[in-house]
Design a protein that fits this description.
The complex is a heterodimer of chains A (114) and B (261). Chain A is an all-beta fold. Chain A is built from no helices and 11 strands. In chain A, the strands form 2 sheets. In chain A, strands 1, 4, 5, 7, 8 and 9 form a 6-stranded antiparallel beta sheet that branches. In chain A, strands 3-2-6-10 form a 4-stranded antiparallel beta sheet, with no helix packed on it. The model of chain A has no long low-confidence stretch (mean pLDDT 93). In chain B, helix 8 links the parallel strand 8 and strand 9. Strand 11 of chain A pairs antiparallel with strand 2 of chain B, so a sheet runs across the interface.
Chain lengths: 114, 261
Amino acid sequence: MPKLNSFKVKIETGDQGTPGPVQFSINRHNVPFENVTGGTDASAVFEGGFEVNSFAHSLTLVGPEKGQWHIKKISVNFDCEGTQPYSVAYGEVALDETSQVNLWQDPPQPVFDV
Amino acid sequence: MSLINKVKNIFADKDPLEESNTQVADSSPPASAESSEKPAENFPDQPQERMTINLPVMKQSSSAQQSDEILIKAQPSVGNDQCVFMVNRTLLEGYSWYFANFESAAESPLAEALFSLEDVETVLVLESTLTITRKDKTIVDWKPLAFEVGAAVRKVLEEGSPLIAEKIIADLPAEDVIRKGIQENIDAEVNPGVAGHGGHIVLKSVKGNTVTIQMGGGCQGCSAADLTLKQGIHGSFRKAVPMVGAILDETDHSAGVNPYF
């Protein structure tokens, strides 16, 4: 597991939004996003990030404290130490006060053409 | 400003971005088995445990699959013990096959071509991928062998002959037979073996002759899980059910009770 310098998320909300606030959980600690733009109303797009500079044993997007949040798509850009920046995308998910969704993926193994 | 100070500010009902004078040495302990045992003392506002949903990563769409040109990509594993080759052609549809040695490659042109390369030890064919292990485990650079593999696969594909012996597919037992054999092996050998480490194995599915398992208990997130899977479970399954092809592990090793311990 490499050291995570920073990450950015782009969350596309589906037909059921949430008033927020949007939080992520790193190593079981809830933290608000920084440099936030957009929103989490229905069909809105939220963008935010965080400078972690540590190891992410777990990294999740926390569900709303009340009600349901229907997410259409989550894109995450990771900047880790010693690897090229990489992106992952996840599909639809519904979150509530009992749930969170994993954001972390290890850097992809290098691939070459043969 | 460190992440720890930001987190401390949050729990102290302060602006998370406000600099704290508290030394790092006084800060909350990192997530560990010890700290997670007493969350209420260290973090009184710690939220309730939530269920973590693990979504599959969305694959990027690629035009390579439709290309007339044969395109092959190589991806060595983390430990460099094997290399996966992804081909923009279906090599074996609906099934998988494990070639343990040169003798097993008889009448399968693809496997014969690969075993003719000096360092190829085993070959696993699954849909449009090949997973190859090498004899010389001391070599970590896969590039020289990978280019030889790429050339061999391309040559066989261009010849257009059947890739895998028809007899192999014709002799495959039904999924139910494979499922029964694997489940019996899990119950009689594998689970009693891993139970000593607090682990257990669950058979999730059998598709064609491809088996998917999930590791639980002490196996989930264990640093030796990969070794257990490849050197213990694979061998046991193949001995019990010789016609089994790929053995896939769908365990989320980042979750569980003791991930990474």
